[in-house]
Amino acid sequence: MRFEGTDSYVATEDLTVAVNAAINLQRPLLVKGEPGTGKTVLAHEIAAALDLPLLTWHIKSTTKAQHGLYEYDAVARLRDGQLGDEKVKDIANYIKPGKLWHAFTNTPKKCVLLIDEIDKADIEFPNDLLLELDRMEFFVYETGQTIKATNRPVVLITSNNEKELPDAFLRRCFFHYIRFPDRETMERIVAVHFPDVKKNLVREALNAFFELRDVPGLKKRPSTSELLDWIKLLMSDDISAEALRAKDLKTVLPPLHGALVKNEQDVHLLERLAFLSRRENR
Hints:
Layout: H1 13-25, E1 29-33, H2 39-50, E2 54-58, H3 65-69, E3 70-72, H4 74-82, E4 95-97, H5 99-105, E5 112-116, H6 125-128, H7 130-135, E6 137-140, E7 145-148, E8 154-159, H8 167-171, E9 174-178, H9 183-193, H10 199-213, H11 224-236, H12 241-245, H13 264-280
Parallel strand pairs: 1-8, 1-9, 2-5, 5-8
Antiparallel strand pairs: 3-4, 6-7
Helix pairs in contact: 9-10
């Protein structure tokens, strides 16, 4: 079972090595990188390439580790007891399996489990999953049963580095940082998504994109996904490569810049740079 990328996802050599190392070690793959570099999409592509089902657990600030194991609905059981419902005699009727439970018991083959943006949760969240992800089992206290992985899932964990993860958790993972694509890799990514795009438009769009990313002081530099959105808009509005070439993005906002520049501070910064450049050129 090896991952080599897919027709719709450009995986660099170091990324494929990391994915296959994690699979061979049977350890979670912890992936970090700038937002928009394809961390979440990677799980979908691994599942597609290996022909495995995908389970996704999107983490929020209120998410607790217990939610991924199971939840016991004591309120529903109390209500049914007051109504005289016979199912209250079996507490299992009020146990709701979580994503890890489903991943551990997925049959007849293993699955890919995505734990997305783990750094959004409380700092104790990773520590609360240490044993479960290491041993691939957990105990259900209400029923006295142990849920153990029938087929050990391929676990992918993403992080945007909003919080530092505990050392004990990191020790149990295989780590990979997705570097921002260089120009050659970006050209391959664009070609995968837009095989019919004009090469001169791609060339000028990438010139503009990387120049924009190099502007000092930007609060949020545009990402890969935003570049793809921008090129889609350029194609839709039939904006020519010549129109892009005529603009110096260090001094002028690019056409349809709302796809690339996502906050007012950066818009104001680029406008100030344009004003200063015009004044210097007088």
